[in-house]
Design a protein that fits this description.
Layout (H helix, E strand, L loop, with lengths): L8 E5 L4 E2 H13 L3 E6 L4 E6 L2 E7 L2 E2 L10 E3 L6 H6 L2 H12 L14
Parallel strand pairs: 1-3, 1-7, 2-4, 3-6
Antiparallel strand pairs: 4-5
Length: about 120
């Protein structure tokens, strides 16, 4: 099958307030393509999603951002939502984590319009 991601490790960087479908559907697709997916967050335990303006489901955090190393991953995905991107933009560790992917030339997210996030 073409475009397989077997053996690739993808980090999903998120915190409370992510748009549910923007995390769960890409995560499902990445796993179906053979990637290993790790949800990385500034907080431990779980993070709360939203379905538009209503609370959604919790997603388990696999690794805290404080112990995450961008060099251990092949790509980065950051889901959108009302609160998630704003919270991550104010977090210096999240910015450094995302910047490490950019500087290493590793794949990182694009918005739906095709522009870098």
């Amino acid at each position: 099958m073409a475009n397989r991601l077997d053996g690739r490790k993808i980090a999903i960087l998120a915190t409370d307030g992510f748009e549910q479908v923007e995390l769960t559907e890409p995560m499902k697709a990445l796993k179906e393509a053979g990637a290993s997916v790790t949800v990385v967050s500034p907080k431990s335990g779980s993070i709360k999603g939203f379905k538009h303006d209503k609370p959604g489901d919790d997603v388990t955090v696999d690794q805290e951002l404080s112990s995450a190393d961008a060099s251990a991953f092949d790509g980065l995905m950051i889901p959108g939502g009302l609160f998630n991107p704003d919270a991550l933009r104010r977090d210096q560790k999240a910015l450094a984590f995302a910047k490490a992917f950019f500087e290493a030339g590793k794949p990182w997210p694009r918005s739906v319009t095709g522009h870098r996030c």
